[in-house]
Write a structure and sequence with these properties.
The protein is α+β, with helices and mostly antiparallel strands. It has a single domain, classed as Winged helix-like DNA-binding domain superfamily/Winged helix DNA-binding domain (Arc Repressor Mutant, subunit A), CATH 1.10.10. It contains 6 helices and 5 strands; from the N terminus they run ββααβααββαα. The chain has helices spanning 12-20, 25-32, 39-45, 51-63, 86-89, 92-110, and strands spanning 2-4, 7-9, 37-38, 67-72, 79-84. The strands form 2 sheets. It has a 3-stranded antiparallel sheet. It has a two-stranded antiparallel ribbon with strand order 1-2.
């Protein structure tokens, strides 16, 4: 058993899926590989996600220390940027592998 942030996980793969699993977390992280994005830029990259879902997923990723949320308040309008933390950057090879496999799966299923 593994214990992380007060949650018990039965194996190491369940830790990974607990932190980045679900429909939107990996997609959000994939778009942050290249660098910082503002909330509205993320919304444009993910047009089918609801604002509520995006906000909740960003909050959870921030709580798990996978992304940073930086708020600029020096002058209006309020500006918020999201970026991968150093811990989050360790996911880049995994995210790239997931994306590559998705391309493969799409090509494989297209021909059937």
């Amino acid at each position: 058993m593994y214990l992380i942030n007060g949650k018990e996980y039965p194996c190491c793969t369940s830790i990974t899926m607990g932190l980045i699993g679900g429909k939107w977390k990996t997609v959000i992280l994939y778009h942050l590989i290249e660098g910082k994005l503002r909330y509205n830029e993320l919304r444009k990259e993910l047009p089918t996600v609801t604002e509520r879902t995006l906000s909740l997923q960003l909050k959870k990723l921030e709580e798990d220390k996978i992304i940073n949320r930086k708020v600029y308040t020096s002058k209006p309008p309020l500006k918020v940027e999201y970026s991968l933390t150093d811990f989050g950057k360790t996911l880049i090879p995994l995210l790239q592998s997931i994306a590559s496999w998705g391309d493969y799966a799409a090509a494989h299923h297209k021909n059937k």
